[in-house]
Amino acid sequence: MFAFSFRPELSLSVGIHAIPHPDKVEKGGEDAFFVSSYRGGVMAVADGVSGWAEQDVDPSLFSKELMANASRLVDDQEVRYDPGFLIDKAHTATTSRGSATIILAMLEEVGILKIGNVGDCGLKLLREGQIIFATAPQEHYFDCPYQLSSEGSAQTYLDASFSIVEVQKGDVIVMGSDGLFDNVFDHEIVSIVTKHTDVAESCMYMYIPSLLIFSKLHVFWYNHYSKVIS
């Protein structure tokens, strides 16, 4: 005999917008991202550290490879759907010279958002027109954020800041590089989100050099069945 039940679970609707700094347009900027539909949904942003250009190293290579590795490893059994383990494995697999800040969020279908952050990329959670949660930047000193690097003296996933937040239908997640949060006030973010219910449309109204991801949480009904032996 089979027993069927339907249970509500959360999923993400995602919009992405990237505006490179005018001096970095030719190479597409130094930020990178990935979005995955695996389980409840996974999102990440990495911001390549521009100081590497002084050593004739393209700062975008490290951030792009880091995100490519994270995307490839997101369903790896050793990651165990944990932000810290995914950051660690993606960092270990990255061979390009350079460094990057990173923020990564994983949604559990039951309504838990797990966040890992190294540096000054950020995430804000909005509910009913208010910011109810925000990550805090990690810096050694002004304009010198924590960062993952090809150099052994930099930070690792062990230095990351981790958060677990309960989310619900209708919540909006705003995630981005420091270019977003350094230049757009909280009340401006709230205004844009409340005026434009479509996440892709909301992204288009952020006219500053940055990479940002807007996500809105929706409920879907999951068909769960179990086999009962009698």
Automatic annotation (TrEMBL):
Record EC number: 3.1.3.16
Domain PPM-type phosphatase: 13-230
Record has Iron as a keyword: no
Cofactor: Mg(2+); Mn(2+)
SUPFAM superfamilies per record: PP2C-like (SSF81606)
Catalytic activity: O-phospho-L-seryl-[protein] + H2O = L-seryl-[protein] + phosphate; O-phospho-L-threonyl-[protein] + H2O = L-threonyl-[protein] + phosphate
Keyword match Transport: no
A GO term for molecular function: protein serine/threonine phosphatase activity
Top-level taxon of the source organism: Eukaryota
Secretion signal, residue range per the UniProt entry: none
Key words, A-Z: Hydrolase, Magnesium, Manganese, Metal-binding, Protein phosphatase
Family: Belongs to the PP2C family.
Protein name in UniProt: Protein phosphatase
Biological source species: Arabidopsis thaliana (Mouse-ear cress)
